């Protein structure tokens, strides 16, 4: 199942790359401090990669917090189990 997901992501990336290479129109992009002329495909690619990296970082931080919470709860559970065994 994991391999199918990887193949699907690679296929989507290749399709986006093929479609993006056809868009060589130059556009003016106004950002906060300046303005620049970029190829549309380059601009779309940069924005896509930035969004992917940002969402991956957010997901990774949430996953890390959950793993820390899980470790803490497992330690509490082990502590309670040892206390129950001592009482019995």
Distance between the termini: 46 Å
Mean pLDDT: 89
The helix-and-strand class reads mainly alpha
Low-confidence stretches: none
Order of strands across the main sheet: 1-2
Largest sheet: 2 strands, antiparallel
A few lines on this structure:
This protein is mainly alpha-helical and about 90 residues long. It is about 75% helix and about 10% strand.
Question: Could you please describe the fold and organization of this structure?
Answer:
It is a single chain. The protein is mainly α. Helix 1 packs antiparallel against helix 2 (about 40-85). It has one domain. The two termini are about 45 Å apart. The protein contains two helices and two strands, in the order αββα. A two-stranded antiparallel ribbon has the order 1-2. Strand 1 (about 25-30) and strand 2 form a beta hairpin. About 0% of the residues are buried. Helices cover about 75% and strands about 10% of the residues.
Defining traits:
Probable lipopolysaccharide assembly protein A, cell inner membrane, mainly alpha, 2 helices, membrane, 88 residues, transmembrane
Q: What secondary-structure arrangement, pairings included, does this model have?
A:
Elements: H1 2-21, E1 26-30, E2 35-39, H2 40-87
Antiparallel strand pairs: 1-2
Helix pairs in contact: 1-2
Subcellular location: Cell inner membrane
Membrane topology: Single-pass membrane protein
Keywords: Cell inner membrane, Cell membrane, Membrane, Transmembrane, Transmembrane helix
